[in-house]
Amino acid sequence: MKFSDLFTWEGTIERGPYAIAGIVGFGLKHNIDRFVASWFFKRRWGLFNYWFPVDRALHLTSLSHDDRVYLFTMLATSLPFIWIGVMLTIKRLRSINMPVWLTAFFFAPFVNLLFFLFLSIEPAESSEDPKWRPVARGNRPIRRFIPQNDWGSAAVAVAVTSVIGALGTLLSVHGLNVYGIGLFVALPFCLGLVSALIYGYHRPRTLAACLVVSCLSVVLLGLVLLAIAVEGVVCLLMAAPIGMVLAMMGGALGYILQRNHWDGVRTQSTFGALLLFLPLMMGTDALKPQDPPLLTVTTQIEIAAPPKIVWRYITSFPTLDPPTEWPFRIGIAYPIRSTLNGTGIGAQRTCQFSSGYFVEPIDVWQENQQLGFRISGEPLVMEEMSPYGHIHTKHIDGQYFQAQDALFVLTPLSNGDTLLTGTSRYRNRMWPVDYWRLWSDAIVHQIHLRVFHHIKQLAEAEALETAARPHAPHRVAP
User: Would you say residue 49 lies in a domain?
Assistant: First the structure.
């Protein structure tokens, strides 16, 4: 391969030169990135910065000027390598007779690792072979293991992937002690891909059939995890949407692969890439610094009572009625009562939840205006639903969901009412954060509303009682 071949999409490339070019290119690029980041910007650049270049900002509009200059500089240094990678990927796809548009996976975070492994293992396509032919596979064990009829091949596909999924889950949760991208993104995608490839091993299947089989692989995995008491019903239902979507994405890719000229060598090379990819991704999650962002949830409610009445119930509130909200009825921990020991900064508020107690030292005290406190203590965040009764899964203890602090602000309104604003901050160590915060934000918001509605009821009742109380008559001087 000539050096000039790196910059053109014409021709093809074998898997060996492609793998070497990719590894050498990445090593060269990584060292250039480290030099630019440290020499010009005095920042550290590691492997995880390719996925999370600036951890403290989630949106481009929230970046500072220095961060924007930094990121655009890093992007500019990446452009030659991106061009070379795209050119080589197009050639590699052409050599294995796969659609060139699959180059889009080159830009997909995390999935591009699997894509690179696949292209580095996949043998080249013979120009004499037709688009599809059921290749004679001799007495390969995998051929005898997979039935040729539709229902039999689907059953084997779902069964095999459920075993792979259970082993992968045990590795990530109990072996590496992490709920990460490998578990919630890479694993369901690979299950969908593998199930479609097994299902279409003997003959090409329809897209709809591949998608159904890929979804069934995730469903059966959930039932297996429930049966062996690794997870409970609630967590599995929360993980189902992202798992189903990614499994169908994998199933769609599997459909594309199996409808093209697919033989036993290709099947084995793809399975080999997947077996390398899953532990790699889960190991990457374990090595990555576990520093989840600080998330904020704010809730407001208007109360028909003056701030001085609302204040008394903010500092401590009596026992609430049993919950009727859906999160708390399925096992999420909910507040019951709170007490206050002392007044002012340094006082201690204790909030009893259904699963234990939170100790809340006061660090903001502006009477009738603001109350702020830190949160310590690690009661369980939920009671998992399981056929075995109580089970203690990894994610329900305090090391994954960590409440940090809260601030209540009382704003007097012109009509004499009070606007109560509550803001809670927490960290969630389950990844991807943007997906799991959809659930955790909703739960924290429901906790706010449960307490706020209770305070509203008590404060408004007291305000009405005070307004109805007869005033003492004025004495007239003789």
Answer: yes
Residue 358 bridge partners (DSSP): 351
Instruction: Mark 334-354 as b/e (b = at least 16 C-beta within 10 Å).
Output: bbbebebeeeeeebebebbbb
pLDDT in tens, 18-55: 888 888 888 888 888 888 888 888 887 766 666 666 55
Give 280-312 pLDDT, tens digit per residue.
888 878 877 667 889 999 999 999 999 999 999
Angle between helices 207-227 and 150-170 (to 10 degrees): 40
The answer to whether residue 461 is domain-embedded is yes
Amino acid symbol at 55: D
The pTM score is 0.75
Quickly list H helices, 122-232: 141-145, 150-170, 181, 187-199, 207-227
Q: Are residues 110 and 214 in the same domain?
A: yes
What is d(CA 75, CA 77) in angstroms, rounded to the nearest whole number? Answer: 5
User: Has residue 270 got a pLDDT over 60?
Assistant: yes
Residue 474 located in a structural domain = no
Instruction: Please state the separation of Cα 405 from the chain's center in Å.
Output: 23
| Helix locations, 392-432, DSSP H | none
Question: For the chain, give me the number of helices (H) and strands (E)?
Answer: 13, 7
Phi, psi of 106 (to 5 degrees): -60, -25
Its domain, for residue 250, covers: 3-125+139-287
Instruction: Specify the CATH number for the domain of residue 454.
Output: 3.30.530.20
Highest mean pLDDT among 269-273, 275-279, 454-458: 454-458
Residue 312 shares a structural domain with residue 269:
no
Task: Mark whether 174 and 300 lie in a shared domain.
Answer: no
With a CB cutoff of 8 Å and minimum separation 6, the contacts of 369 are 307, 409, 410
Asked if residue 405 and residue 354 are part of one domain, the reply reads yes
